[in-house]
């Protein structure tokens, strides 16, 4: 079996290295071929969603996977346990919308019991989430990413093609009341919701929340003509717009692996963030992997998928064989999103839906 990369590159020498009692060996840290630690997996539990956000999928929706093609909860638990043994410590559940899948909360409970998993979070649109907030707080979920592109009910219905803003706001306030940190994710779309940037940003004045503005990406199940250079609202313009209206944005030091550049504003309890998701300025310290709902491994959001884990699991592969296949994939990871995109076959240059990829 080819061993995973467990050396400690100089670029990450400043990262805290956990050690056991009385000089016991530190838990493993897995590095890719570019010296980046891989310690965070985004796990899509379903490709189904109860909204139809136009930047994520076509109006008619997408062709959902048959149930038998989705990973079972047991298969996902096995993969997370193997990844935890290699050094992954954080799991974020995504979709689609995670709470569309039945029995999600018991599955979350079991994930928290896997040795090595230190942090469980999730990304949700908030429509079905409020009834589960108490359970999430009980099991120790510390933070939730809430997708919310506008506070205007009519625009919300236009963007998502569903009139569900009241239920999303119920989730927002339930999370705050439970002491769960809320990170609002808002995709900035020219001609759609740019008038909503300031109302969303104003939430940070009185509330201890992060509001993060994300460059629009091409993952809508169709084509996308803009490039990072021609994107109407790139990260530069988003910051300029916020500073023009709110005053100076003071940068917060970033940690390796952070996708957002965070800022504080004088007099605000919360923070603002900007995610250059299409410009891809954060690739150099990316520490995340993606598992799609059908068991595909993506070592970059922009790649076409590098390993069919479902086939391995259902083909009878041993744990050692799965680990060997994972290790080989990690040793051939693209340097950044542009390289990963350039390696896609020509017939895959029209990007799939984000609901299919997994958040």
From TrEMBL:
The keyword Iron-sulfur applies. Keywords: 4Fe-4S, GTP-binding, Iron, Iron-sulfur, Lyase, Metal-binding, Molybdenum cofactor biosynthesis, Nucleotide-binding, S-adenosyl-L-methionine. It comes from the Bacteria. Its EC number is 4.1.99.22. One of its GO terms (biological process) is Mo-molybdopterin cofactor biosynthetic process. S-adenosyl-L-methionine binds at residues 55, 96, 147, 217. It catalyses: GTP + AH2 + S-adenosyl-L-methionine = (8S)-3',8-cyclo-7,8-dihydroguanosine 5'-triphosphate + 5'-deoxyadenosine + L-methionine + A + H(+). [4Fe-4S] cluster 2 binds at residues 283, 286, 300. GO terms for molecular function: 4 iron, 4 sulfur cluster binding; cyclic pyranopterin monophosphate synthase activity; GTP 3',8'-cyclase activity; GTP binding; metal ion binding; S-adenosyl-L-methionine binding. Its cofactor is [4Fe-4S] cluster. InterPro entries: Aldolase_TIM (IPR013785), Elp3/MiaA/NifB-like_rSAM (IPR006638), MoaA (IPR013483), MoaA-like (IPR040064), MoaA_NifB_PqqE_Fe-S-bd_CS (IPR000385), MoaA_twitch (IPR010505), MoCo_biosynth_MoaA/MoaC (IPR050105), rSAM (IPR007197). Binds 2 [4Fe-4S] clusters. Binds 1 [4Fe-4S] cluster coordinated with 3 cysteines and an exchangeable S-adenosyl-L-methionine and 1 [4Fe-4S] cluster coordinated with 3 cysteines and the GTP-derived substrate. Pathway: Cofactor biosynthesis; molybdopterin biosynthesis. [4Fe-4S] cluster 1 binds at residues 49, 53, 56. Monomer and homodimer. Catalyzes the cyclization of GTP to (8S)-3',8-cyclo-7,8-dihydroguanosine 5'-triphosphate. Belongs to the radical SAM superfamily. MoaA family. This is GTP 3',8-cyclase. It comes from Hymenobacter amundsenii. The lineage of its organism: Bacteria, Pseudomonadati, Bacteroidota, Cytophagia, Cytophagales.
